[in-house]
Design brief:
The chain is mainly alpha-helical and about 220 residues long. About 60% of the residues lie in helices and about 0% in strands. The longest helix is centred in the N-terminal third of the chain and has 26 residues, at about 5-30. The two termini are about 15 Å apart.
């Protein structure tokens, strides 16, 4: 048997990393951060346990990367759903609804994510986080910002604050109230985006995250 090509090896590594990210999202969402071990993540992903440390320095970094992947793909899906639009106000509304929707639909996962960013390791700069930042920055620019470098961090801070407010134990604020404040700030109409109590677009699924993790592609070695 001839050795695998470099491109095939790269594809296999990509798929292994994707499976670990997906497993982290699923397990932390099901059981919480403390009850989720690196071994359990590796087992769910069908990977050797040593591969976890090959791709990620530790559990905190893995989970942050996994949640950032979920966030940027959720945001990307919201921005590009039909009917497609280039209208900056509509895209801002979709972005706000996408992030607030994660707080509403995945409270355990998002609460752990917010708590993790306050730990000693702080904010993990990973490819997933960078893609999320790019999408939010583009959203601010299309909304009409004359200085996206200044306005993007403010949008990020406002969204993080809203997620925290929606999830704080014992005193959560209703997502529609937080949405109203953000829509007021950005001068958006209530019926833009995906208003509360609106049926999710066809094809959207709040529980299945597999579509956000590309693990079903075969390596380019001619095998099926």
């Amino acid at each position: 048997m001839s050795p695998r090509s470099a491109s095939v090896n790269e594809e296999l590594r990509r798929r292994s990393r994707e499976r670990l990210l997906q497993a982290a999202v699923e397990l932390v969402g099901e059981h919480g951060y403390d009850a989720t071990t690196l071994g359990a993540i590796a087992d769910r992903a069908g990977s050797a346990r040593g591969l976890v440390s090959y791709y990620f320095p530790g559990k905190r970094q893995l989970v942050q990367s996994a949640v950032h992947r979920l966030m940027h793909r959720t945001l990307e899906e919201a921005l590009e759903r039909e009917p497609r639009t280039e209208d900056g106000r509509e895209r801002m509304a979709r972005a706000i609804d996408a992030i607030l929707g994660l707080a509403r639909d995945r409270p355990v996962l998002m609460r752990q994510h917010m708590a993790g960013m306050l730990q000693a390791e702080g904010f993990v700069q990973c490819p997933e986080q960078q893609r999320l930042a790019q999408l939010l920055r583009e959203t601010v620019a299309r909304h009409g910002s004359a200085d996206a470098d200044t306005d993007y961090p403010m949008l990020r801070a406002l969204l993080m604050g809203a997620v925290y407010a929606a999830l704080v134990p014992g005193a959560p604020m209703p997502v529609p109230v937080l949405r109203a404040e953000l829509f007021k700030r950005y001068r958006l109409d209530w019926d833009m985006g995906l208003p509360p109590d609106t049926e999710a677009p066809t094809g959207s699924c709040r529980t299945d995250v597999s579509r956000f993790f590309a693990t079903d592609q075969h390596p380019a070695d001619g095998r099926k």
